[in-house]
Amino acid sequence: MRKIILTGFMGAGKTTVGQLLAELTASEHADIDSEIMEEQGMSVTELFANFGEQGFRDLEHQKLKEVVAKEAIISTGGGIILKPENRRILAEEYPVVYLKTDPAIFLERLKGDTTRPLVQEKTPAEIQAIFEPRIKLYEETADVIIETDQLTQIQVAQAILAALESGK
Ligand code: S3P
């Protein structure tokens, strides 16, 4: 059983790598976006449309508080680092792993995406403008940074476990 929080921009692979880590370590997997969608009975796009981004961020904060209370591999949404209260939670005892992905790669993965309201109908330059001010926050909140670009998702999961074993 392991406790790990995965952060990173949209399209970094947090959900898939979280599932793989949970399998590798026989741990529970908590995906914040999926749990919110299931509880609210709405997609993230519908949640943004009905409650606004702020409403979604409040649900995300509540869910983060709830999932850190248990032992799990936690996949966050890319905006988790925006709220100072969330950053305080990330600074607590859970190891935080930032999946660092080159913009060229996440822009390619986000092309034509219909599930993420912040990137819909946005140009690559506009998406990059959402990412840029977040870089500092991803880096500041991370205990470990894994560069994912040259790795498969299983290699990312293995690299995370190796880094945590050698460090914290
Ligand atoms: C968001 C990322 C999404 C989701 C929402 C907002 C963001 O999660 O929480 O669309 O602000 O970066 P993923 O990072 O899993 O795509």
Q: Hey, roughly how much beta strand do the residues contain? A: 5-15%
**What structural class do the secondary elements suggest?**
alpha/beta
Distance between the termini: 15 Å
Principal-axis shape:
globular
Oligomer: single chain
Topology, number of strands: 5
How is this fold's topology laid out?
Layout (H helix, E strand, L loop, with lengths): L3 E4 L6 H12 L3 E3 H9 L3 H25 L4 E3 L8 H7 L5 E5 L2 H8 L13 H18 L2 E4 L5 H14 L2
Parallel strand pairs: 1-3, 1-4, 2-3, 4-5
Helix pairs in contact: 1-7, 2-3
Bound molecules: shikimate-3-phosphate.
Give a structural overview.
The chain is an alpha/beta fold. The protein has helices at residues 14-25, 32-40, 44-68, 84-90, 103-110, 124-141, 153-166; strands spanning 4-7, 29-31, 73-75, 96-100, 144-147. A five-stranded parallel beta sheet has the order 2-3-1-4-5, sandwiched between helices. Helix 1 (14-25) packs across helix 7 (153-166) and helix 2 crosses helix 3. The longest helix has 25 residues, at 44-68. It is globular. The two termini are 15 Å apart. The mean pLDDT is 96. The structure holds shikimate-3-phosphate. Residues 10, 14-15, 33, 44, 77-79, 116-118 line the site of shikimate-3-phosphate. Shikimate-3-phosphate binds at residues 10, 14-15, 33, 44, 77-79, 116-118.
Summarize, please:
55% of the residues lie in helices and 11% in strands.
Name a few traits of the molecule.
5 strands; binds shikimate-3-phosphate; five-stranded parallel sheet; single chain; 168 residues; 7 helices; globular; 55% helix; alpha/beta
